[in-house]
Design a protein that fits this description.
CATH class of the largest domain: Alpha Beta
Strand order of the largest sheet: 4-1-3-2-7-8-6-9-5
Shape: globular
Number of domains: 2
Strand content: 25-35%
Number of strands: 9
CATH architecture of the largest domain: 2-Layer Sandwich
Largest sheet: 9 strands, antiparallel
Length: 226
């Protein structure tokens, strides 16, 4: 798969509703939202007369064509390119767990399958799992059964998930957990399949899973020598 991206946006928390409206206007149905905090030092904040900034981090999946429209709206309507307002960036998606899930994530977006890019021939991949709140252990148990190591869990809230019933025939809760798992590329398919079979849409976890390429790593020496 190519020309599909994970769009991540980091902005002031007060922009949350406007961001959501921007995404909805461009047909993006499944958006994950997470709260965060800026890291500027107190000296820097004092110098500019600023307060500690509460952030919102959003994550969704876009095609090339959709990104062109979203980027224009982010810059023209939300002025995200003004310093201190926010930032949006893309990461290529290499695979999505299941045809129905792909249709759900790409609802209404134009997509033409092309040849895999060289960037996706990487040694490691980041598996991203979005599951109902409280089911991260089930997800990790399924991943470890196929050789995955540890994972990182982030609490999030989903928006626009009512469209899941149209494609998946299930209702998906708003409160979510996002689990990040770094795995060797040759293990990725087995891990994703295990998660789909043991913690997927037929389970209470209702997990969505996709992967993005990792160009390099540090700190995985034990996996290298196994």
């Amino acid at each position: 798969m190519s020309e599909i991206y994970m769009l991540m946006t980091v902005a002031k928390r007060a922009m949350g509703r406007r961001l959501q409206a921007c995404y909805e206007e461009n047909g993006l149905s499944a958006v994950m939202c997470m709260h965060a905090k800026g890291t500027a030092t107190s000296d820097t904040l004092d110098y500019f007369g600023l307060e500690v900034t509460e952030k919102i981090v959003t994550m969704t999946v876009v095609s090339d064509e959709t990104w062109v429209k979203v980027k224009r709206d982010l810059e023209d309507k939300l002025q995200i390119d003004v310093p201190g307002t926010g930032i949006a960036f893309l990461v290529p998606v290499s695979s999505v767990g299941g045809k129905k899930m792909f249709q759900f994530l790409m609802d209404g977006q134009t997509f033409v399958k092309e040849e895999e890019s060289a960037m996706k021939n990487t040694k490691y991949e980041l598996i991203v799992v979005i599951a109902n709140h409280g089911y991260s252990e089930e997800v990790m148990a399924a991943a470890r059964a196929q050789g995955a190591g540890g994972g990182t869990v982030i609490h999030a809230k989903g928006t626009g998930l009512e469209k899941a019933e149209k494609f998946l025939g299930v209702s998906i809760a708003d409160e979510k957990e996002i689990i990040y798992i770094v795995a060797k590329s040759e293990m990725k398919n087995a891990i994703m399949k295990s998660i789909m079979e043991n913690a997927g849409l037929e389970s209470k976890a209702k997990a969505v899973v996709f992967s993005i390429p990792v160009t390099d790593t540090a700190g995985l020496r034990l996996q290298e020598i196994q």
